[in-house]
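Lab notes, practical 5.
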Amino acid sequence: MRFRQLPSILPLLLAVTLVSGCGSDNEENLQDGSQSAASSAGHPSAGHPSGANRSGANRSGANRSGANRSGANPQPGQKTKAGSDSKPPGLIPSFRMLGPESGFAFQRFDDIQGQRRILETNGGGVALFDFDGDGLLDIYMTNGCRLPVRLDDHSTPGELFRNLGGMKFEPIASDSLLVQFGQTHGCAVGDFNADGFDDLYLTAFGRNTFWQNNGDGTFSDVTDSTGSAVPQWSSSAAFADLNGDGHLDLYVVNYLDESDESPRLCPEKRSPDGYTGCPPTLFDGVDDVLFLSDGAGRLVDCTKACGIDGLNGKGLGVAVVDLDGDLKPEIYVANDGEANFLFGPPVEGVRSTLVPGLGAVPRFEDRALAGAVALNEDGFAQASMGIAVGDCDRNGLADLFLTHFFGDTNTLYLNRGNFTFEDSTRGSRLGTTSRQSLGFGTAFLDCDNNGWLDLIVANGHVDDRTWLRNEPYRMRPQLYRSRRDGSFEDVSDWSGEFFRKAWIGRGLAIGDLDRDGRIDAVVSHQQDSSVALQNETAGGNSIVLRLVGTRSNRNGIGTVVEVVSDVVPLRRELVGGAGFQSASAQEIHLGLQKRSDLTIRINWPSGSVDTHTRTNPGVWTAIERQGPLRTK
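Output from the prediction step:
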């Protein structure tokens, strides 16, 4: 963990490190026969060189970074449910896995071999977007390839599934000319050229690609013409209007500096194949990239001009969201074993820089430490992967939830306003139930349309370590029902077959696939088929709102929608990015219980405000400053 910007807490962390490195744990490590930081763990958090597994459980079973956050640390394989094992009362969300009759069938290829290369671990992502403008959400799945990457290897392409309605799909990637090859991981969706058809940006190990939607059912590779190729190992990405000019910009998260030709290997004589996964602490991080649109079809690298270069954060997730209620975006980055970033406007000093061809561009300052979202409440960096964003306690401000490594807890940061957050992992009851899982994709979603955000998490280990500590490789996903007070209960056992089976979960995206007003989900797996989940919860009514900006960016990313009549705020924002390597549907979903005839207020990024009265449940399109809601 690096603290270039954290000098005020360095003495405290050093003291904790010295204390935690002494005594019985060192004896336990010696008895275990640990050879090195690399051989003692398969991930950054479990092999941190600066002190006793800071972001996960140490090898003797005690958990220093979160023991007081969620109670006693359970033993491997022990059931960890917050509360009773009996079925909780009330309406429980229910999801059905689509079968082969749906036409959705995809299994990602990852070149997983006995050497346990770190390039094998990140898996793939999912994008839900209406690529053909028929009003139905289509599905894109990224794919991997054999390593090292070869440009002439076209054997494992990604796949685009057209939604035919009624939860039926057909694969059409080859017909659409969206021919993605290589070691591709993540995706971001946005109408970059504002022509009414969403474009697709794909992150990869080696070279990212930008696919322009031609509006006729086909795509064109515009990576070179837009200047958006990133040659590093990228994970997640997000479109958003970062400088308020009405054009979509792009933030690309980069992970580690690694080679596919001569990858780093970590021998382990006790392992069945002689290796264990190398933790990211052994690798250098890579700067993220911030592109600003010039409004004429090109993206300009403004990473340095915007003040976010030189940080090398080992990023895996990103969300662009208004965290202080001023309708201006902040950028939150989940880093793996390093302090997370929260880029916002500088508290003082220079707020913009002149860039030729763009004029004044905003400068950002990392405010994560001051806002208490860089580290957990114990002052430790965690192995942050996925990000869920939403107002889960309904105080009118967006909260942040992060997934983490096995033996550690996931973390919920409740937004208290003015760039200050509270680590509510214990109070939310999300700690204990996450300690025996390793989370990746995640999202807040209102499963039962009652106005309160529930939570879904895809789990799966990065390395098969069943030979070492009985740590599961495949893990059960989790579904948490909101208790309507900022806390949650794990209802996975009763929410469908998918949540009772074990998978190696990675990317996850949500959206209303069958247009019944209930939020569905698609999950990408490693070494298993991907899964589409149909929400069959017998809940209330909802409004699904598609946004079309005129003065704002055309997708309306950054727009905040409110139900005016609610005493308890019901506020939803169209966020850029979020999740892990995935792009959820760019739509606003408002759960209404059984209500109708409501007044909603749409606050656009441009500053325009549209108010719509007597709004009833359904799927609607809102066009900025152009009259009533439309059905198409």
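Observations recorded by the TA: Residues 359 and 533 are 46 Å apart (CA to CA). The first strand starts at residue 95 and ends at 97.
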